[in-house]
């Protein structure tokens, strides 16, 4: 093959010497890239063109394409390449793509996986998803329109996700007469912007996806351009994989392989570095050290394994190591922390609730985590920082995160596998957000728990009682405060040291800055939980009377307490009954619209599924309820 | 430090193994759907690699229609045994009782044996995750399929309610009644599959290789008369043709291609020089535009 032959041409080797062809093709590398641009930029057309030019379109598909082009195409009688890549029936009817689609093509040198993302309001979520696995981004610009708001948005997101290889494809050059100066102006404008957000380098290429200019080889229409054509550039660009191998060894343990008592293998995908038998390693977060014994594989033991490979390792010593832990080079361990600053991309219809616990999955580990109120939200179009209390679908912000235990990590900039995480809603199980760790908060390491000589047991023993939290939950008007009050009086008569935290009362002081939005309700309960925890440390029996409508927060408070100390008491009063009582006149106000976010009316109440005690107030009066609770507390 | 650039097959293999292990680590009761085709063969091979020296810690399950090629049944039993895995074969008893077959019942055949059969089998054994060998390059509607594809309690697929998949992080948490189909070879193309079979020496059904076989030509497809249940129409006489199959399904629904390719290399060669796409040999796709997407929403794999 001579240098000027189109790269995509079917290799003559296929027909002549299939063995030689296979041998050559088994040494192809792989490049994953994302194309960014809206429908109008000709993105689908460009991808369709790449598939077409690399001979990934078969005759039957081409026939279907020609028929479709005439029926629903936007290019008159010409082939509409965009139809090749618009998949789902619904979106073909609407004329838009609605998700991330993955396309495949290959040349002589590389296999390509293209993440194709649409350009409408779901854009941020989809683009971030597509970019998370990409080695390179092609940012499309319509030559007639130049650098637009969306160009800035795409570039910001690509940079945020840590993609270092960026191609600026100035498309539709045919529609501006292949004008050199148009191209130069766009490139100059883009360069100024790119530098302002920290993009150091990019490769500008003038193309026409529709006509095929500078896609597979130099176009006669742009004699003034002497840079690479798109496909040859995609074939030549260096993939990060080798750089990952030069970093210290890290492997999150995915699964422990125990076929019998004599074998214990640690399976995982190597996140960075290389590993050989004999290497000294450390298991984090435990810190135990050992040496690599074997790299086990179906084909026999291996001498070396590198970043990007899925392997099974055995260690020389029997040390504790399980899923979620990370095996690292002994001399170059990872940081371990439980508080981080992270950049978060919100992906769920339900907004972020600061203070609520979410599952956080990082590497192979899933822990419970809370997100603080964001420091700021980023306007993806202008990159301005805006003040915010929460993050909505497609919002990007920076916030501190606290995990319920220490986890080994790297900053996202250093390693995607060890610094990228997702947040999962504990109730819906949906993936709520993607996050990137910026750094650990020093206070996590520097503020240690101060051990005191007089501990919680001492406090409790002085009072001759076992501390507990009697957590009464139920609708407004269900009778929580009434029951709580009687319980406290009865306990006082029994010489028990108690304290009653009442929902209305704490809102006069400790929580007077909070309203009744979901986010504020979460914070209200978190604070009450912390106070109740301090009081149990002081040895008290704490009685609380809060609507506490969300299961997640009640579970959060339960997890703060010592096992067995949290007693959830469901004051079960049907809404009609509570509303009929309406002691404070609140239901009437809520019904008439004067009171917003009222539980049971326009804000949900999530009843406990398995409370320790359930009080049915339709069959039991407050005295009987109090007796039942005390009987349970002091058998 | 010695550098080693991973090839595309090595990267695909690592990714698939990672996915297989992730499921085993997080699922309660996973199963691997095994169709005996080349994609299933690769998926099974990857599972052996992922869990070696343990056998893959889940059973294989074949949702049988009773109308597969005889060669497929033979390899199915052999492969499961060689992998040291339990083989579950499920045949929809209702379809069996009603004698549902591809000749008399059209699309009801696929619906009853495969779509309904699969749902029955998953419910019967309480599997919460099922591995499938589907690839994104097979068909346009699959390009957007997730690796972890969530199905409602009645096995329906909602294309608008799938979770974003970032990095190598798969959210495998599911609500009660939900199940997950996981596709470990999503990112493989047909050529990747063939190259890997070649490189790893994976055994595949002989039907992929050309041989003289008794065939009839019907409705534009060359069909193999694999047994005497094939009702011949007026004037039809089985003719020996040198044919092979690019995909395998129920033999009365699977079109053969005329070919002389008798070795793996020749098959790959022919595939690379070929001009029609893989699924064309399957009658199921020609029903209507976007038919695959519709089938998927109904619960067809």
TrEMBL record, chain A:
Signal peptide start and end residues: none
InterPro entries, alphabetized: APS, APS_kinase_dom, CysN_GTP-bd, CysN_II, CysN_NoDQ_III, G_TR_CS, GTP-eEF1A_C, P-loop_NTPase
Domain of life per record: Bacteria
Gene Ontology MF: a single term: GTP binding
The keyword Heme is annotated on this UniProt entry: no
Enzyme Commission number, as recorded: 2.7.7.4, 2.7.1.25
Function: Proposed to provide activated sulfate for transfer to Nod factor. ATP sulfurylase may be the GTPase, regulating ATP sulfurylase activity.
Record's subunit section: Sulfate-activating enzymes, NodP and NodQ, may be physically associated. Heterodimer composed of CysD, the smaller subunit, and CysN.
Protein name: Multifunctional fusion protein
UniProtKB/TrEMBL annotation, chain B:
UniProt keyword terms in alphabetical order: ATP-binding, Nucleotide-binding, Nucleotidyltransferase, Transferase
Listed EC numbers: 2.7.7.4
One Pfam short name: PAPS_reduct
Region entry Disordered, spans: 279-301
Signal peptide: none
Keyword Metal-binding belongs to the record: no
Gene3D superfamilies: HUPs
Residue ranges constituting the Phosphoadenosine phosphosulphate reductase domain according to the UniProt record: 29-255
Domain of life: Bacteria
GO biological process, one term: hydrogen sulfide biosynthetic process
Catalytic reaction list: sulfate + ATP + H(+) = adenosine 5'-phosphosulfate + diphosphate
Broad class of enzyme this protein falls into: transferase
InterPro entries according to UniProt: PAPS_reduct_dom (IPR002500), Rossmann-like_a/b/a_fold (IPR014729), SO4_adenylTrfase_ssu (IPR011784), Sulfate_adenylyltrnsfr_sub2 (IPR050128)
Recorded metabolic or biological pathway in which this protein acts: Sulfur metabolism; hydrogen sulfide biosynthesis; sulfite from sulfate: step 1/3
Keyword Aminoacyl-tRNA synthetase: no
GO MF annotation list: ATP binding; sulfate adenylyltransferase (ATP) activity
Summary of subunit composition and partner proteins: Heterodimer composed of CysD, the smaller subunit, and CysN.
Family: Belongs to the PAPS reductase family. CysD subfamily.
HAMAP family the UniProt entry points to: Sulf_adenylyltr_sub2
Function: With CysN forms the ATP sulfurylase (ATPS) that catalyzes the adenylation of sulfate producing adenosine 5'-phosphosulfate (APS) and diphosphate, the first enzymatic step in sulfur assimilation pathway. APS synthesis involves the formation of a high-energy phosphoric-sulfuric acid anhydride bond driven by GTP hydrolysis by CysN coupled to ATP hydrolysis by CysD.
Record's protein name: Sulfate adenylyltransferase subunit 2
Lineage: Bacteria, Pseudomonadati, Pseudomonadota, Alphaproteobacteria, Rhodobacterales
């Amino acid at each position: 093959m001579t240098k000027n032959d189109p790269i995509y041409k079917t290799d003559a080797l296929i027909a002549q010497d299939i063995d030689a062809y296979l041998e050559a093709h088994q040494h192809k590398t792989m490049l994953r890239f994302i194309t960014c641009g809206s429908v109008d930029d000709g993105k689908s057309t460009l991808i369709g063109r790449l598939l077409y030019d690399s001979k990934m379109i078969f005759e039957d598909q081409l026939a279907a394409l020609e028929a479709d082009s005439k029926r629903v195409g936007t290019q008159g009688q010409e082939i509409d390449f965009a139809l090749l890549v618009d998949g789902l029936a619904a979106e073909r009817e609407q004329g838009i793509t609605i998700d991330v689609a993955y396309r495949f093509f290959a040349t002589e040198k590389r296999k390509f996986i293209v993440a194709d993302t649409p350009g409408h309001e779901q854009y941020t979520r989809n683009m971030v998803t597509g970019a998370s696995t990409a080695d390179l981004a092609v940012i499309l610009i319509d030559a007639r329109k130049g650098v637009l708001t969306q160009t800035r948005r795409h570039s910001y997101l690509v940079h945020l996700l840590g993609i270092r290889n960026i191609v600026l494809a100035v498309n539709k050059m045919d529609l501006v007469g292949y004008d050199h100066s148009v191209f130069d102006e766009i490139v100059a404008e883009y360069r100024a912007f790119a530098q302002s957000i920290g993009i150091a380098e990019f490769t500008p290429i003038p193309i026409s996806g529709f006509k095929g200019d500078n896609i597979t080889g130099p176009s006669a229409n742009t004699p003034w351009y002497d840079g690479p054509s798109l496909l040859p550039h995609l074939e030549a660009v260096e993939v990060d994989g080798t750089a990952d191998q030069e970093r210290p060894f890290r492997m999150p343990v995915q699964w422990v392989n125990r076929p019998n008592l004599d074998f214990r293998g640690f399976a995982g995908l190597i996140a960075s570095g290389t590993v050989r038998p004999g290497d000294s390693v450390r298991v984090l977060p435990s810190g135990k050290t050992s040496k690599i014994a074997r790299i086990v594989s179906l084909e026999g033991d291996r001498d070396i394994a590198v970043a990007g490979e899925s392997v099974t390792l055995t260690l020389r010593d029997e040390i504790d190591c399980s899923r979620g832990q990370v095996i690292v080079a002994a001399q170059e361990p990872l940081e371990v922390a439980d508080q981080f600053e992270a950049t978060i991309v919100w992906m769920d219809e339900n907004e972020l609730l600061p203070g609520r616990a979410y599952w956080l999955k990082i590497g192979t580990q899933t822990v419970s985590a809370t997100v603080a109120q964001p420091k700021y939200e980023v306007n993806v179009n202008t990159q301005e920082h805006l003040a915010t209390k929460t993050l909505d679908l497609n919002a990007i912000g920076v916030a501190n995160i606290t995990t319920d235990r220490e986890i080994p990590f790297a900053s996202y900039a250093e390693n995607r596998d060890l610094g990228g995480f997702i947040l999962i809603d504990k109730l819906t199980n949906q993936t709520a957000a993607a996050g990137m760790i910026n750094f650990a908060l020093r206070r996590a390491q520097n503020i240690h728990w101060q051990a005191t000589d007089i501990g919680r047991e001492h406090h409790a023993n002085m009072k001759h009682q076992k501390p507990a939290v009697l957590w009464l939950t139920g609708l407004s008007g269900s009778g929580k405060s009434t029951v709580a009050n009687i319980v406290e009086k009865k306990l006082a008569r029994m010489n028990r040291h108690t304290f009653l935290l009442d929902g209305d009362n704490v809102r006069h002081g400790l929580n007077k800055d909070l309203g009744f939005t979901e986010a504020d309700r979460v914070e209200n309960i978190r604070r009450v939980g912390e106070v109740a925890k301090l009081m149990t440390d002081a040895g008290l029996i704490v009685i609380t009377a809060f609507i506490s409508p969300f299961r997640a927060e009640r579970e959060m408070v339960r997890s703060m307490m010592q096992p067995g100390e949290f007693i959830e008491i469901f004051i079960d009063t049907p809404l009609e009954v509570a509303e009929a009582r309406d002691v404070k006149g609140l239901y009437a106000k809520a019904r008439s619209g004067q009171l917003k976010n009222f539980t049971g009316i326009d804000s949900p109440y999530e009843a406990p599924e398995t409370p320790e005690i359930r009080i049915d107030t339709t069959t039991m009066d407050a005295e009987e309820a109090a007796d039942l609770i005390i009987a349970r507390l002091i058998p | 430090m010695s550098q080693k650039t991973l090839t595309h097959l090595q990267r695909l293999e690592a990714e698939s193994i990672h996915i297989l292990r992730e499921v085993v680590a997080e699922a309660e009761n996973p199963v691997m759907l095994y169709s005996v085709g080349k994609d299933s063969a690769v998926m099974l091979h990857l599972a052996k690699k992922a869990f070696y020296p343990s056998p893959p810690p889940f059973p294989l399950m074949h949702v049988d229609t009773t109308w597969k090629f005889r060669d497929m049944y033979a390899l199915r039993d052999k492969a499961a045994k060689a992998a040291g895995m339990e083989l579950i074969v499920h045949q929809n008893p209702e379809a069996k009782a009603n004698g549902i077959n591809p000749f008399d019942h059209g699309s009801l055949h696929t619906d009853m044996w495969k779509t309904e059969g699969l749902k029955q089998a998953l419910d019967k054994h309480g599997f919460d995750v099922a591995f499938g060998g589907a690839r994104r390059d097979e068909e346009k509607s699959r390009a957007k399929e997730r690796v972890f594809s969530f199905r409602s309690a009645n096995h329906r697929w909602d294309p608008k309610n799938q979770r974003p998949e970032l990095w190598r992080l798969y959210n495998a948490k599911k609500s009660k009644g939900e199940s997950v189909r996981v596709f470990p070879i999503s990112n493989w193309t047909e050529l990747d599959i063939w190259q890997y079979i070649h490189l790893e020496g994976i055994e595949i059904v002989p039907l992929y290789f050309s041989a003289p076989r008794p065939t009839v030509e019907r409705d534009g497809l060359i069909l193999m008369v694999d047994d005497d249940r094939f009702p011949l129409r007026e004037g039809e006489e089985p003719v020996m043709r040198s044919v092979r199959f690019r995909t395998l399904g129920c033999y009365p629904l699977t079109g053969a291609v005329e070919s002389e390719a008798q070795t793996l290399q020749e098959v790959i060669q022919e595939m690379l020089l070929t001009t029609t796409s893989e699924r064309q040999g399957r009658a199921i796709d020609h029903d209507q535009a976007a038919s695959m997407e519709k089938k998927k929403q109904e619960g067809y794999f």
